[in-house]
Amino acid sequence: MSKAGTMGQISGASPRLKARIAGVLYLTSFVVGALGELVVRGRLGSGLTLIAIACMVAMTLLLYRIFKPVQRGLALFAASFNLVGLTFEALRWNPRGVDIAMVFHGFYCLAIGYLIFRSTFLPRILGGLMALAGLAWLSLLSPTLASHLSPYNMAAGLLGEASVMLWLLVMGVNLQRWTEQASVAERR
Q1: How many angstroms from the chain centroid is the CA of residue 26?
Q2: pLDDT digits (tens), the chain, 188 positions
Q3: pTM score, two decimals?
Q4: CA–CA separation, 129 vs 161, rounded Å?
Q5: Residues 90/46, Cβ–Cβ less than 8 Å
Q6: Nearest CA among 105, 97, 89, 100 for reference residue 147
Q7: By the 8 A CB rule, do 10 and 18 touch?
Q8: What is the pLDDT of residue 93?
Q9: Using CB atoms within 10 A as the burial measure, which of 16, 113, 114, 135 is most buried?
Q10: Which of 167, 187, 188 is nearest to 66 (CA)?
Q11: Could you give the CA distance from residue 109 to residue 56 in angstroms, rounded to a whole number?
């Protein structure tokens, strides 16, 4: 099957399936990225990191499609921020010791947390947990602050993102509520 055919199938898939695919990509990115950063070094480690980034790009685009009916502008803002952060991650750009990619990802998590909270098709608690993750990642703006908050900021970030990732992977979205929210958004 061609790439275009596969992308067309994903594009035409139900929101629940898209959410589950996003969960798989999220998990894959996390596992492969951890291997690339912590276990495998050198050229292979760099390759694994790029695979993790590619998975995050695809996940970001899928989540944009899922959250577009909630608030299109904010969903686009969130996706744009994460794509910029992923570009910085691919370039390994960390001026003055600040992990710029994770700071952009923090803003992404805050926006997605708000979108989850405003949505009718995911539990609101996930929105709060994702916003907590965003705040944890934003602590990386200051290496000194991040150091003082460590390991609690890392644990909060991982807890928030893992909760959303696992929910998407296992449950997806409530299809009926997503459809209702999408039809309301179309009428606006």
Answers
A1: 7
A2: 555 655 556 667 899 999 999 999 999 999 999 998 889 888 898 899 999 999 999 999 999 999 999 999 999 999 999 999 999 999 988 887 678 999 999 999 999 999 999 999 999 999 999 999 999 999 999 999 999 999 999 999 999 999 999 999 999 999 999 999 999 988 87
A3: 0.90
A4: 7
A5: no
A6: 97
A7: yes
A8: 85
A9: 113
A10: 167
A11: 13
Listing DSSP states for the chain in one string gives --HHHHHHHHHTS-HHHHHHHHHHHHHHHHHHHHIIIII--HHHHHHHHHHHHHHHHHHHHHHHHHHTTT-HHHHHHHHHHHHHHHHHHHHT--GGG--HHHHHHHHHHHHHHHHHHH-SSS-HHHHHHHHHHHHHHHGGGSHHHHHHHTTHHHHHHHHHHHHHHHHHHHT---HHHHHHHHHHHHH-
Specify the residue for token string 């951890």.
34
CA distance 67 to 115: 7
Task: Assess contact for 146 and 96: CB atoms under 8 A.
Answer: no
Which structure tokens are listed for 176?
A: 């009926």
Instruction: Please count the residues of the chain.
Output: 188
Q: Which residues of 16-54 are buried (b: 16+ CB within 10 A; e: fewer)?
A: bbbbbbbbbbbbbbbebbebbeeebeeeeeeebbebbbb
